[in-house]
Amino acid sequence: MGRNALPVVVIGAGPQGLAAAAHLAERASPVVVLEAGDGPAAAVADWGHVRLFSGWPELIDAAGARVLAPTGWTAPTTGYPTGAQWISGYLAPLAAALGERIRYGARVVGVSRLGRDLLVDAGRGEQPFTVHVQPAEGEEYRLQARAVIDASGTWSTPNPAGADGLPALGERAAADLLSYRIPDFRDRGGFEGKHTVVVGSGHSAITAVLALARMARRDPSTTVTWALRRATAGNAFGGGGADELPARGALGVTAREFVDAGLVSLVTGFRVERVVREHDRPVLIAEDGRMLTADRVVVLTGFRPDLSFLSELRLELDPTLQAPVRIAAEVDPNVHSCGSVAATGAADLAQPEPGFYLVGAKSYGRAPTFLALTGYEQVRSVVAELAGDHEAARRRELVLPDTGVCGGAGAFDAAGGSCCALPSQVLQIGRAAASV
To answer: What is the pTM of this model?
Structure first.
């Protein structure tokens, strides 16, 4: 089989992986989607109980909608779905329409070039990719591919509680007392009448804090502590009414209201150094010696990309974010200023290994600002480039909504103002939802 007749391999059957497959199918390009889970959007299913802050129109890829049109599918147009509703209303039908192009229970354990390890230059670009797959059942095998689109996301690699990016001392030993995902708070038994500490400052952390605060409002014996690493809480409350995604802006507005009402105890500058177990309760100890004793600890400090199975590919990644270097400055929370993050395309995502692309949340590395819309524009551009439609690949078809925030820019150790701080009076809009 000639290299051009080989399929494009897409890693991950999440929102961006399915969108990539839809675009490839529209261009009559052979495609194989490899999904480690046992169904479409397996990572989304893990947080299926969480409501998104993006509305339905921002969650449906144009090519995906076109692939679904002959099936009689109708696109939802209003509302903010939960993860489970996103799957049932769009992602699962799209996966069904793509049919046998998707292989479930197929975990990618390595990607390289045929007969070439990382060191070899000679003829490297002319060789197809080899994708090593460990199926849920059976023996490991490999596929050859003319290109690889890695849309595997970051869900499998959450950041630890430790403030230095490594698990805190004792964190691994106490892992059974900690959760690294937004719990399903519909099961209230594990939280009502108990003290929960939430570590983290992003939208996922706020979502957990809000759910717990509502429990505390109903039952005063339920207590909530929100632990932030920063010395000031200004950035944590987001852009409020300045956010062009109203439900996202409402997260911070409501969080501030609950803190002001005393339903949430806010602790700033708390950088976890050690986790100890006392009578089967976790105790967090900060670098400055402060201690928080809890019944439950929910660690929502972000995610990072799993690059382990890409070790034989030549990648050009930003040393800070672990994202493609051409988009790093645009999404870096250390320097990002107030306003929108620009859309990114094939030229921004291209790697020294021709034909390999990181897309979706994984393309943002450790940055927390990814939206589904961003990924859909990425895969549209990447597939156009792979099809030789360079004009379409260069074209930008997306203007992202203004966040009204500046990510992590500003002081970290010292309290002070921030361009991200909410105005003193804001109108509550929408209802709390979670980020994706």
So the answer is: 0.88
